[in-house]
Structure formats: structure tokens, C-alpha cells
Amino acid sequence: MHIPTLTDIILQEQQKAPNAKGNLTLILTQIVDAAKIIASHANRTGLVDILGKTGNKNAYDEEVQKLDEFSNNLLVKTLFESNQVYAVASEELPDILYSPTKTGDYIVFFDPLDGSSNIDTNGPIGTIFSIYHKNDTVLQKGNKQIAAGYILYGPSTIFVYASQYSINGFTLDPSIGSFLLSFPNIKIPKKGNIYSINEGNYELFDEHTKKYLAHLKTTKSYKARYIGSMVADMHRTLLKGGIFLYPSDSKNKEGKLRLLFEVNPMAFLIEKAGGMAVSNGKNPLDILPIAVNHKVPIAIGSKENVEEFLKITND
Ligand code: AHG
Ligand code: MN
Ligand code: MN
Description:
There is one protein chain. The protein has helices at 6-16, 23-43, 45-51, 67-81, 207-219, 230-240, 259-272, 303-314, and strands spanning 85-90, 97-98, 106-114, 125-133, 147-153, 157-163, 167-173, 178-183, 194-196, 223-224, 243-246, 276-278, 298-301. Helix 2 (23-43) runs antiparallel to helix 4 and helix 5 crosses helix 8 (303-314). The protein has 315 residues and is α+β, with helices and mostly antiparallel strands. The strands form 2 sheets. Strands 2-1-3-4-5-6-7-8 form an 8-stranded mixed beta sheet, with helices on both faces. A 5-stranded mixed beta sheet has the order 10-9-11-13-12, with helices on both faces. The protein is 33% helix and 22% strand. Residues 91, 111, 114-116, 198, 228-230, 233, 256 line the site of 2,5-anhydro-1,6-di-O-phosphono-D-glucitol.
């Protein structure tokens, strides 16, 4: 039996788009290749401590870089090499970076390494990306995204990709070096019983968030799970249902998560899977970004959970 690969699905979708010239396909192929390289480096992160930190040579006599720095540099290089990307912005870069050749019709935003604090303890980490057409402005509302996805580097490497047409998940088969379709046509459950929030910040939360958490606890039907890598927490939310929250608090007035690199791609993915996202009572995809590091609070997940969150926090 032939299991479709990520490349098969990307090519199939290219055919659905009238007038497609394959330029988006080239960008996606570059991201897929970068993901495989990051995955192989992630597998060796435990060795970095033995072999030396940034600035030292590893066993292969290569310069050892921190994984977030390495992933960032790799994605910038590989995206511009496609000749299809006009500009990139990354959580690891202070400003928008323009293609040296000023060519390309696309803009790519990415969080090269999400969940960095998990690296030292071999916890799950990820990469998030979001693709737009080149427009009058680089910073556009999330509802202009044409594709988004994430890669989860866990016990296996999983690539979840959404286009206008569909959302599918793929697992890397290391023996052949291909991502194989393992979660076709993902649909998030309408309701789930898992909530995910950093409750260590409880005393900093406002009364609305505290009231919602009290509701979850009194119903006694919820489980708490928090990995501390949005990619890993969102992957579980997508498959099992429930809700993930990073609210504003008295220290972080706008929350912690970045609209362009984390919130918008996840909101795009979750909507394609039938779920829902809200930020201060509205859809984050309708927020006009004012800066590359624009942060917003977020509640995202199964539709019924997010509606319940809205009802309780609005009362
Ligand atoms: P990054 O590693 O890219 O900076 O992102 C970390 C983010 C996100 O992945 C995660 O959900 C959240 O920060 C965790 O924050 P807390 O440690 O404050 O809970
Ligand atoms: Mn992140
Ligand atoms: Mn990051």
C-alpha cells in the first residue's frame, strides 16, 4: 500500500489552485528539508553539553550552535534560497529581513524553535511557520495567511500542515527520510476534557481567568496538562480536544505569545480543524499586527470549550 507523503499532498493541492506555478510548493519543500535537519540536530542536543556549547567544535568538527540559533539561521538561508520569499520575520530576529535579491512573492513568519526551555531536559520542542502573499505591507492580519504549520520534535517528528483546503499530519519515517501521512484530514473534537495553562501564574491572573479556572475545577471533569511548548500543547489539543490558554496577567499585560509567530499560525490551523481561537473576545486572525513582536492573550481549542470560556469570562 502506498502511503501518501507530505510532498504528494503538497503537489495534489498545487493542482487545486488555479494558475499555481509551483512557487509555494518550492517554499514548502524547503521547510520540509529544514525540518528534517532540525529534527536530526534535536536528536543530538543531549550531546551538546558533552561536546561543548556555542563557539566550540562538535565531534564532526562543526561549530556548535544553540539549537534555536541554528534553526533560525537554517530557515532564513533555506527560505531565501528558494527565490520565492520576499521577506521573512522570525522570533529570533529583531526586524523583518528582506531577500538579498528582492525577488519572491511570499512572506514567511516563523518561530524556529518553540519551547526552548525544554531542550535541556529532552522535552518536546517545535517549529512554527506561517505563509502570506507579498502585499503592500509585510505585517498583515492573520486572516490573510495562505498556509501555516508546525513541526513537533517529540518521540517522533510530526509535521502538521494546513492550506486553504485541508489540514493533515505527517510522521517522519527516519528509515526513508520522508514524512508519511499519519493524521489525514484532522478534525478537533467538539469538546475535550483537558485544559492547558501555566497555573504557576495564578496569582497574577485577573478575576475572569481565575473564575474560569474555578469553574473547571468545580466540575471535576477536567484534567490539566502543560508541557510549556506551545507546539506540543497545541498538538495534543488538536488531537484530543480541550483548551490551551496563555492569558494576560499583571506582569505580562498582553500575555506572552506572539501574534505573528505563534498565535496566528495556530489559530489558522485550529480553524481549519473546526476549532476556535479568541483573544480579548475577538478572533486573533482579525487583529492588525503593529510590530513583529506584537503579543496577544490567547484561548484556543475545541469550539465548545472556547465558547464556555467566553461565556464564563464575559459574565
Ligand atoms: P519560545 O520557546 O519560542 O520562546 O516559546 C515559548 C512559549 C510557548 O511555546 C509556551 O507555550 C510558552 O512560551 C511557555 O511559557 P511559560 O514558561 O511562561 O509557561
Ligand atoms: Mn515559541
Ligand atoms: Mn522560539
